């Protein structure tokens, strides 16, 4: 199997790699790039723990072949904090108690970020619908929804700058 | 969970994709969103030598109107389609089935073509190679028996596309392009009825577009599932009504959806269709809820879908 | 210490969450070491078969394979929590007893090589007849799974208090019903993973665990290695819920491979393996007979409960007992007989669960409601009448100290207008209440207590060292909060070393509801001892009596003359000068009857204290489809003083999901010993869109023993949320459930049976 050359941007840094044609984006992120924030909880696209944002769209990286994202711009949880400042969603998840075991957290935050990027002031109903893409076993989701809504109100500047 | 070895090729246009397929001598699979294919490959339910990525083909990613039809490129994502004005305004059954498909994130990746061409499912089939080897190979894995219904001569795997049902209710047709040229068939002709190999596609064919006549319809989609997202239908019923007649489509039970014409909207014919659909449904113990219940629900949800569609029409 | 607390009782940001929101928290599968190998396990394809031979030779020849092992490479030791349950070799050499059982394993340079080698291992089996149903397994002539257990009865717990037969005969109303429930999956988000690294005679291990010390001890036994050479290290854990309490076959597999290869080995299970080959929850059949007097007083209970134990003992005696105890700790039973049978079957291994016992508990509670209705009584009054209060003894002689049960019932029913709604229930709409108590810890011999070491560092910050482990519920943050309160320094000044068997002292672990009551209590004591050293020096320096001193905001100050003060930092440095640095140990051992034993002596003080809770569910039922929706769920919980109310709420909300909504969707599906839903698609963990509106109420009964009055936080709701759902369905249908989960097909059957509709 011939290796495939790929170029993409991860968290605003250009990356050039040779990968296996049958390598998932989750494997590339975790094994080659040491970006371990995305987790493999089911490996079959059911749970969302491996979610990353690719060109503005939240994707389950366990279902994406790395060659498919050649040329794309990828955001992982490691890329959310800027200049030593947490993203409002990260702050709100901490402040509202939305994190327990933490295994779903990065996927949950990135799913929510993609929502806020396209809809900065979602209604509670919309937040519930969006995060129904991700399984959390610990929280009952209430504090996660609260955190996303809190982040949406928190930082107007964020929405202008991003 | 690692993938088995295969080559990855990206096609620039349809002709190139078909040429890549022919070069791979039949051991190739086309890839769009991958939400059905990649889990299958991970579970070794499909072991292609080459995966041909169709996402770079611009033609497959457009929605247009032509001669009274909405032409939907096969690579349009479910989320894009759901938010298209024509779908929102004219095809309520399709809007509802798109909205009920899996979850928002997977709607953003899954394509309408891939959703239609998703393989049939069974609780005893969508498992790892180790699990299946221990249990014994069934018809759908190339074995000699069914693991759900001992002694059965057919495969009862379920076709679980939500959106094929609403598209069928809207009398959609599809375009296929392959080594032997292009053809256009009615959507219902796509299904073989055989759970082992549920589609009538010829080797190397690509589903390129779906055509839906643009006429305002009233309609509804009813989905039986245990949780409200990330669940395949245990039964799906789509109804679309235009100018006093319509179509009911029942899926999620058995390898092919079933279409029932609604010649008129009288109470008797509605009841007849619902009863008929229930009689024809042959659920077995291969999904989360009991087969007897799923059969009963065919009638209940058909009546409910029709009722909602009619209410909307008024 | 005055009662106005600075940190304890506040909604603080948990100390572990920064690492989690930034993706920096390392879980076992995230670990990488130089020369690390990847392990894969070959599993049994048979539910029951004799092992005739295992040939690893071809696997070992594959380039890149560095070790291959089977049970023949182990030391012939069988694991069991108790002396009388040592039946689990983890890697069997005699026979396999469930599909998915670990049989052999390889370690290779990468996963592809390991998989290739696995396919070359040859195992000769002689298939044996298997049994999957516990009632069948108890019959004469059923296949014997272990020689030691006649009729496959692994454990029989027999409790008999008072005169049940006489009380039953004299009761005004008697009812007997049988309730079943499918076992659930823990479905913790993190699939099981182990990293084992053997070097220089020492074995280091990382794995999600709910008790590092007990895990190290089990492995030291299984590997015949001295305990000081087995070190379980701290690692983030992606959820446990009871499923990470015991040693797991993967621990032995990774250890043996690392010992053989002399290199670190990482084993990460797939989601499917996590379901088929780590622990699952017991399926149950509970027969509940209740005698009531005319005024609703429970006069007698007679129970026969069958637990499907899967292939091995696991925590057998505990699992066979807990559902009964949490119920008798809640209600007064003057006469009660309990026969709990844990029966072995050829299914995967089973363990304790945070929600363990739903058939029994939901059955009891919904039966109580039907009986109340028959007597013209209100379920709230019946619960208040039979509920225990402080100063009372349970049937098996545990003294209840602090008890807010009545307040949880009152507050939950008031806020839901329960008393008005319950009698007005109609088909399709119902309200139900479930109550429970939870022991905070249970007797575990010398492991029942916890110890902590604290040292003050030169800038006035502290390091605390404790065995307390965090599986996501927030235990680490709780002990930091407690230390912060006692030492008068902010949480960020406190570093934590925990859940590491080398550095920390014994602790009961995070599976007996003891982390706060016992573990944080030890931290409190240690910090108080350190604080006394601080105030002694400060008293001398400031010229005030030590009793007049308080610590706050990194300062020691006189409470009577507040301008007499000095930084804690100065005192710490002064102590260094004196050659007697500020450091202290502290421990806490709960007041329990250590002679108590699950089978042979099931009486005596179970725990230092008990927490209480009441759940109220409001349900709607679609009468055509049987589908239940839950618009509102209210939970009231007496957790003593909540250390961090936000974390307690989080536990309660998670419990409503994992026990409450689970009652309508979660359950394992089996087909002849094959698990049909070993994934996150067909096993239905509720999603955000499935959740009700939630109202949580915390009742703070100050516990006299708990740290700052705290008890266990959250588990009561995990043990009564399903009861509330079942009772609400009973209220809406006027019928009892027969089996959980209450999926729409089952609910429709209840509705049709009630209507007299034929199938």
Would you kindly provide a written description of the structure presented here, covering whatever features stand out?
The complex is a heterotrimer of chains A (162), B (314) and C (759). Chain A has 2 domains: 4-79, Ubiquitin-like (UB roll) (Roll); 88-161, DNA polymerase, domain 1, CATH 1.10.150. Helix content of chain A is 35%, strand content 15%. Chain A has helices spanning 25-32, 88-95, 105-118, 124-131, 142-154, 156-161, and strands spanning 4-10, 13-19, 51-54, 57-60, 73-75. Chain B has 314 residues and is an alpha+beta fold. Helices cover 31% and strands 22% of the residues of chain B. Chain B is built from 11 helices and 12 strands. Chain B has helices spanning 14-23, 37-42, 78-82, 85-90, 92-100, 104-109, 112-116, 129-135, 163-169, 267-280, 291-313; strands at residues 7-10, 28-31, 50-53, 63-66, 69-73, 173-178, 181-186, 206-213, 218-224, 235-242, 245-251, 258-262. In chain B, the strands form 3 sheets. In chain B, strands 4-5-8-6-7 form a 5-stranded antiparallel beta sheet. In chain B, strand 11 (245-251) and strand 12 (258-262) form a beta hairpin. Chain B is globular. Chain C is of the alpha+beta class. Chain C has 3 domains: 31-128 and 193-268, Alpha-Beta Complex (Aldehyde Oxidoreductase, domain 3), CATH 3.90.1170; 280-443 and 596-755, Aldehyde oxidase/xanthine dehydrogenase, molybdopterin binding domain (Aldehyde Oxidoreductase, domain 4); 449-588, 2-Layer Sandwich (Aldehyde Oxidoreductase, domain 4), CATH 3.30.365.10. In chain C, helix 11 runs parallel beside helix 20 (721-733), helix 15 (475-487) runs parallel beside helix 16 and helix 18 (645-665) crosses helix 20. The longest helix of chain C has 28 residues, at 515-542. Chains in contact: A-B, A-C, B-C. At the A-C interface, helix 2, helix 3, helix 4 and helix 5 of A face helix 1 and helix 18 of C.
């Amino acid at each position: 199997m011939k290796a495939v050359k790929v170029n993409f941007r991860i968290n605003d840094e250009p990356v050039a790699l040779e990968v296996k044609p049958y390598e998932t984006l989750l494997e590339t992120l975790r094994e080659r790039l040491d970006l371990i924030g995305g987790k493999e909880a089911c490996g079959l696209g059911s749970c969302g723990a491996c979610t990353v944002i690719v060109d503005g769209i939240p994707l389950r990286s366990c279902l994406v072949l790395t060659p498919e994202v050649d040329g794309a711009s990828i955001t992982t949880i490691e890329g959310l904090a800027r200049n030593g400042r947490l993203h409002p969603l990260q702050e709100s998840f901490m402040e509202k108690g939305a994190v327990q075991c933490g295994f779903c957290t990065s996927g949950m935050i990135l799913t929510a970020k993609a929502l806020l990027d396209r809809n900065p002031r979602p209604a509670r109903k919309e937040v519930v619908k969006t995060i129904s893409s991700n399984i959390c076993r610990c929280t009952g989701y209430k504090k996660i929804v609260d955190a996303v809504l809190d982040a949406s109100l928190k930082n107007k500047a964020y929405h202008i700058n991003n | 969970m690692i993938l088995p070895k295969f080559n990855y090729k990206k096609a620039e246009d349809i002709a190139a994709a078909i040429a890549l397929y022919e070069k791979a001598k039949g051991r190739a699979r086309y890839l769009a969103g991958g939400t059905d294919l990649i889990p299958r490959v991970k579970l070794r339910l499909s072991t292609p030598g080459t995966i041909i990525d169709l996402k770079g083909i611009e033609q497959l990613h457009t929605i247009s109107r032509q001669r009274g039809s909405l032409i939907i490129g096969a690579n349009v994502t479910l989320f894009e389609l759901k938010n298209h004005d024509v779908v929102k305004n004219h095809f309520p059954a399709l809007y509802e089935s798109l909205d009920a498909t899996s979850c928002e994130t997977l709607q953003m990746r899954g394509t309408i073509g891939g959703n239609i061409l998703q393989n049939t499912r069974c609780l005893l089939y969508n498992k790892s190679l180790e699990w299946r080897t221990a249990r014994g190979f069934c018809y759908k894995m190339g074995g000699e028996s069914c693991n759900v219904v001992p002694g059965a001569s057919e495969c009862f795997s379920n076709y679980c596309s939500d959106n094929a049902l609403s598209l069928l209710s809207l009398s959609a047709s599809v375009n296929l392009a392959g080594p032997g040229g292009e053809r256009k068939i009615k959507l219902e002709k796509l299904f073989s009825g055989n759970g082992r190999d549920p589609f009538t596609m010829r080797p190397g064919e690509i589903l390129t577009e779906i055509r839906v006549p643009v006429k305002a319809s009233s309609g509804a989609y009813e989905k039986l599932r245990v949780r409200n997202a990330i669940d395949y239908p245990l039964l799906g019923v789509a109804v679309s009504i235009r100018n006093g007649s319509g179509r009911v489509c029942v899926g999620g039970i058995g390898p092919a959806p079933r279409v029932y014409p609604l010649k008129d909207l009288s109470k008797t014919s509605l009841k007849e269709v619902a009863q008929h659909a229930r009689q024809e449904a042959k659920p077995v113990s291969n999904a989360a809820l009991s087969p007897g219940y799923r059969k009963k629900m065919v009638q209940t949800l058909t009546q409910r879908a029709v009722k909602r569609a009619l209410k909307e029409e008024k | 210490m005055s009662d106005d607390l600075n940190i304890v009782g506040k909604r603080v940001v948990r100390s572990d969450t920064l690492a989690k929101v930034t993706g920096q928290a390392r879980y076992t599968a995230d670990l990488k070491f130089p020369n690390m190998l990847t392990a894969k396990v070959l599993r049994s394809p048979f539910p029951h078969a004799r092992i005739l031979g295992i040939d690893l030779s071809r696997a070992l020849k594959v380039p890149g394979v560095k070790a291959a092992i089977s049970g023949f490479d182990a030391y012939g030791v069988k694991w069991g929590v108790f002396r009388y349950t040592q039946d689990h070799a983890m890697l069997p050499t005699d026979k396999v007893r469930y599909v998915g059982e670990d049989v052999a394993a390889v370690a290779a340079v990468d996963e592809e090589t390991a998989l290739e080698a696995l396919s070359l291992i040859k195992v000769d089996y002689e298939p044996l007849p298997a049994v999957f149903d516990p009632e069948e397994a108890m019959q004469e002539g059923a296949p014997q799974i272990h020689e030691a257990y006649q009729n496959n009865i692994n454990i029989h717990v027999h409790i008999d208090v008072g005169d049940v037969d006489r009380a039953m005969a004299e009761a005004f109303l008697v009812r007997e019903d049988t309730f079943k429930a499918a076992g659930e999956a823990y479905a913790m988000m993190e699939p099981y993973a182990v990293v084992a690294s053997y070097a220089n005679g020492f074995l280091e291990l990382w794995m999600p665990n709910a008790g590092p010390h007990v895990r190290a001890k089990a492995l030291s036994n299984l590997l015949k290695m001295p305990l000081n050479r087995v070190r379980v290290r701290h690692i983030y854990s992606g959820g446990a819920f009871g499923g990470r309490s015991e040693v797991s076959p993967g621990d032995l597999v990774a250890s043996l491979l690392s010992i053989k290869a002399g290199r670190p080995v990482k084993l990460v299970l797939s989601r499917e393996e996590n379901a088929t080959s780590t622990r699952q929850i017991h399926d149950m059949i509970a027969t509940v007979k209740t005698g009531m007097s005319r005024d609703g007083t429970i006069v007698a209970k007679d129970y026969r409960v069958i637990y499907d134990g899967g292939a091995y003992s696991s925590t057998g005696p505990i699992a066979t007992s807990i559902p009964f105890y949490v119920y008798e700790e809640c209600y007064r039973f003057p006469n009660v007989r309990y026969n709990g049978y844990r029966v072995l079957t050829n299914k995967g291994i089973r363990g304790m669960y945070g929600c363990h016992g739903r058939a029994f508990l939901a059955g009891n509670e919904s039966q109580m409601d039907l009986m109340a209705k028959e007597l013209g009584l209100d379920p709230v009054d019946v619960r208040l009448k039979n509920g225990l209060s402080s100063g009372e003894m349970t049937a098996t002689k545990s003294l209840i100290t602090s008890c807010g049960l009545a307040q949880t019932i009152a507050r939950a029913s008031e806020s839901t207008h329960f008393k008005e709604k319950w009698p007005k229930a109609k088909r399709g709409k119902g309200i139900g209440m479930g109550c429970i108590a939870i022991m905070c810890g249970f007797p575990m011999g010398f492991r029942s207590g916890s110890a902590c070491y604290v040292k003050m560092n030169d800038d006035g910050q502290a390091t605390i060292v404790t065995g307390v482990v965090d599986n996501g519920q927030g235990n680490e943050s709780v002990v930091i909060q407690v230390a912060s309160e006692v030492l008068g320094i902010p949480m960020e000044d406190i570093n934590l070393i925990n859940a590491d068997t080398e550095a920390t002292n014994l602790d009961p672990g995070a599976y007996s509801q003891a982390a706060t009551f016992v573990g944080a209590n030890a931290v409190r004591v240690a910090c108080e001892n350190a604080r006394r050293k601080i105030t002694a020096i400060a008293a001398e320096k400031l010229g005030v009596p030590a009793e007049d001193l308080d610590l706050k905001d990194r300062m020691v100050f006189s409470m009577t003359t507040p301008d007499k003060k000095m930084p804690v930092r100065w005192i710490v440095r002064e102590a260094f000068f004196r050659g007697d640095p500020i450091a202290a140990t502290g421990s806490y051992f709960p007041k329990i009857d250590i002679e108590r034993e699950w089978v042979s002596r099931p009486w005596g003080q179970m725990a230092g204290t008990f927490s209480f809770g009441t759940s109220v569910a409001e349900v709607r039922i679609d009468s055509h489809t049987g589908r239940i929706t839950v618009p509102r769920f209210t939970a009231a919980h007496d957790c003593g003083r909540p250390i961090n109310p936000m974390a307690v709420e989080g536990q309660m909300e998670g419990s409503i999901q994992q026990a409450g909504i689970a009652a309508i969707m979660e359950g394992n599906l089996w087909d002849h010993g094959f698990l049909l839903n070993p994934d996150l698609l067909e096993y239905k963990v509720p999603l955000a869109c499935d959740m009700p509106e939630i109202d949580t109420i915390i009742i703070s009964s100050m516990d006299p023993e708990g740290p700052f009055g705290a008890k266990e936080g959250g588990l009561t709701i995990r043990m009564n949320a399903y009861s509330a759902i079942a009772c609400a369905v009973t209220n809406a249908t006027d019928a009892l459930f027969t089996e959980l989960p209450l999926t729409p097909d089952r609910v429709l059957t209840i509705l049709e049976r009630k209507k007299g509709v034929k199938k």
